[in-house]
Amino acid sequence: MSQISEKRHFSHRLRDANSAFLPARSANAEPVKVGFVLQPHFSMMAFTAAVDALVTANLVQATPLFAFTTFGLNATTVRSDLGIDISANATLDQLQLEGDGALDVLVVCGGFRCNLSEHAPLSRVLKAAAKRQKVLAGLWNGAVALAHAGLLDGLGCALHPDNHAFVQERFAGVAVSPQFMVVEARILTSAGPSSALEMMLALIERLHGRETVRAIQEILSSDRSAEHGNTPLTLTENDPTMPEALRSLLRLMRSNIEEPLGIEELADYVGLSRRRIERLFQSHLETTPSRYYLELRITHARRLLLQSSISISNIAVACGFVSSTHFSHCFKDFFGVSPSQARQQQRG
Asked: In this structure, which topology does domain 237-347 adopt according to CATH?
């Protein structure tokens, strides 16, 4: 009887980096349908940041989580704040809130030069959406449209500082927040491009959990800058919350993929006992050193496999596996398909 290999699961740190390539965990659900209303002179940066979160959410799961559609107020061509004309999918009067194709989330995209006057058809759509318990959101000063529709009375909202005075004067029942983002029960608002991304991540976390958001951040936040431009990439070994000894061990592992170091060698390099190293990995990474090392190597192998034409046997050698057969078994245990099948799927 042939031996049945045991299914392997990534520990939480490396699961984020590999989530898009893992087998789907459950039966496919319908994607959440998100509509973006593009007001003339909408902020392109805020809009693309929000869309990027949704597109990346689809990339980190085996099945799509979101579908999005864009709407112009009166036409399908909308000029952004950059002077670039964007082709919307439809106009506001074609927006569906019931039946097939009905939206689940409606986002109003504002910008620095957007007209702050009420647009009656948009107010009607927003009121109808609220009545049907849809999730509503505003980017930059998109909250102004929500306020015109009477949907922010008694609630807080975030919007660009340039519009604080206007909203405070015009809408006495709306609490303008000094925060860059406000998340209410069914209404989310943000003040600019960076907060647009954070707002969508908050929505994604609500709908699909923290694990999905961590996987998105693994892709989108790798070069997140701090005060200075020499901030290192957000790899686990650069995480300042980790003890320096553990970060040194992780750097050693990443630098020695082709010829993996034994735990005794690792212990000698950092001057710690084997038991101390095992405790560090368990406390901070919820796994063992050997397990983390294997996951690191199989992740490196997956990247080489799908991003290059290097032969499978050479990838096995480059990632420290004793044979291509051993590599193939490990790869299938983690990803559910053989290396050759994964490469074929990627090319397809």
From this structure: Arc Repressor Mutant, subunit A (1.10.10)
Mean pLDDT over each residue of the chain, to the nearest integer: 88
Tens-place pLDDT, residues 29-65: 789 999 999 999 999 999 999 999 999 999 888 788 9
Q: How far is CA 299 from the centre of its chain?
A: 19
First to last CA, the chain: 34
Closest listed residue to residue 37, CA positions, set 123, 155, 166, 113: 123
The SS3 call for residue 255 is helix
Q: CA of 235: how far to CAs of 149, 219, 308, in Å?
A: 44, 11, 22
The pTM of the full predicted model, rounded to 2 decimals, is 0.72
Q: Are 320 and 262 in contact (CB under 8 A)?
A: no
Q: Locate the domains of the chain by residue range.
A: 31-220, 237-347
Average pLDDT of 77-102?
95
* Orientation of helix 244-255 relative to helix 263-270, angle to 10°: 130
pLDDT in tens, 242-252: 899 999 999 99
Judge residue 118's burial from the number of C-beta atoms within 10 Å of its C-beta, 0-12 exposed, 13-18 middle, 19 or more buried. middle
CA-based nearest residue to 163, from 43, 18, 247, 292: 43
| CA 111 – CA 159 distance, rounded (Å) | 10
CATH number (2.40.160.40, 3.40.50.880, 1.25.40.70, 3.90.226.10) of 31-220 reads 3.40.50.880
Residue bearing tokens 């907060």 = 195
Helix (H) or strand (E) holding 204: helix 193-208
- What's 152's DSSP letter? S
d(CA 325, CA 102): 49
Kindly report, residue by residue over 174-219, the tens digit of the pLDDT: 999 999 999 998 999 999 998 999 999 999 999 988 888 888 887 8
DSSP 8-state secondary structure symbol assigned to residue 73: S
